[in-house]
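INFO  loader      accepted 1 record
INFO  loader      residues=138
INFO  predictor   begin
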Amino acid sequence: MAAFHGSFLPVTLLEKARGSVNLPETCGAATSFKLRAMPLLPPPPSSQPVRGAKRRLAVAAIGVALFFGGVAAWTAVSPGAYGQSRAGCVTVTIPSSTGGALLHQCGTRARILCRSAFLSHDRLSLLTRRPCREAGLG
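INFO  predictor   done
INFO  writer      dumping tokens
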């Protein structure tokens, strides 16, 4: 058996010559294998947001707050066209199945609504009388 082993080159010479290792001959020796695997997923993003992202978030939050503040101020100052009964138009808020409804009439229809409100004594008529007086129709 010694003659058989003597005819082979040592492992180190084989490594230098061909760049490969004869594994059956090196099983007894301690070797370390380096396995390289391709990652399936990219590495997770950093947990710390970048400095510019924080600034953009703060500017966006301030912009949204200013927008809603402006809308709230505008609705408080300007109630809209149906806000008050005046100049021949009557606006009445009446109870409804969804909480409340807006009844708005102008001109001839407002005069007819006010005339029927002063002739009847039901709840809707009682609610309509005050806006009719404000519009100058009653």
